[in-house]
Amino acid sequence: MTARIIDGNALSAKLRGELAAKAAELTAKGTQPCLAVILVGGDPASAVYVRNKVAGCEKAGIKSLKFEYPQDAAPADVLGKIAELNADPSVHGILVQLPLPKQFDEKEVLEAIAVEKDVDGFHAENVGRLSQGQEAFVPCTPNGVMEMLKSIEMPLRGAEAVVIGRSNIVGKPMAMLLTAAGATVTVCHSGTRDLNFHTRRADILVAAIGKPKFVTGDMVKPGATVIDVGINRLPDGKLCGDVDFESAKEVAGAITPVPGGVGPMTITMLLVNTVVSAERSLAKLKG
Ligand SMILES: Nc1nc2c(c(=O)[nH]1)N[C@@H](CN(C=O)c1ccc(C(=O)N[C@@H](CCC(=O)O)C(=O)O)cc1)CN2
Fold this sequence. Notes:
Catalyzes the oxidation of 5,10-methylenetetrahydrofolate to 5,10-methenyltetrahydrofolate and then the hydrolysis of 5,10-methenyltetrahydrofolate to 10-formyltetrahydrofolate. This protein is an alpha/beta fold and 287 residues long. Helices cover 42% and strands 15% of the residues. It starts with a strand and ends with a helix. The structure holds ligand LMY7XDAE. The ligand Nc1nc2c(c(=O)[nH]1)N[C@@H](CN(C=O)c1ccc(C(=O)N[C@@H](CCC(=O)O)C(=O)O)cc1)CN2 binds next to helix 2, strand 4, helix 6 and helix 10. The ligand Nc1nc2c(c(=O)[nH]1)N[C@@H](CN(C=O)c1ccc(C(=O)N[C@@H](CCC(=O)O)C(=O)O)cc1)CN2 binds at residues 48-49, 52, 95-98, 120, 140-141, 231, 239, 258-260, 263-264, 266-267.
């Protein structure tokens, strides 16, 4: 039997519909949610993601502001724009599209964003809050994965979860969220000995490695839920994930495709965080 496909586009459409209603409500109360997006340089993939974020905002009734800088932009100019946006009460979310050109200190830029507007959830304070189970903006990709698991009613308490990859934006927060939900989590990485031993005992396997078709069917426990966070472009121009979908789907119980899986959910959760930020800002205004 082949696996159930967890459709990120369908789930996104449902969540974005609910979000549009919330955004309309906030707008009627005089607080239209507003997201500011900063794009530096000419990376074509980043340009596509930013375009999709802006289009997602428009469709959900969220205002968006886009600021573009050339590849050789001075970090001070971008930091100045962030300071300006931090001080603007009509802006509820600020994000800087990653990766940044090499003259930038990524940490410095991310920490310059006001914690309460950090809708990407990358600021150290949001990361710390998340690790302690406090209210925080959760990074969009792992948050989207949690929504996908919820959508299939995946039992998390007591589940064996294996996350391959330990990046700050996916692997680490993913492990924190799964741990908080009661799963027993193993984080695997380039130094892991006998990776297959770990993957084959995972009820939930999250692949966030950045290597095309790295996880093959023989690495998957029969019936497991396989979440593919990878987005890789093959020489023929086609997109593929970190999971070899064709072989893994024959073994897994549920699986996310690429494209149309976790990717769209990343943008959906960004919109969710922006609306939450606007709600908090309105509540503060009301005192
Ligand atoms: N500031 C941020 N930078 C980056 C993030 C992030 O969350 N915040 N994540 C990634 C890129 N990313 C969002 O920015 C992102 C990647 C992929 C998708 C997506 O919808 N992918 C589609 C395929 C799109 C295509 O044709 O290329 C899919 O998987 O179906 C959305 C967002 C790194 N940078």
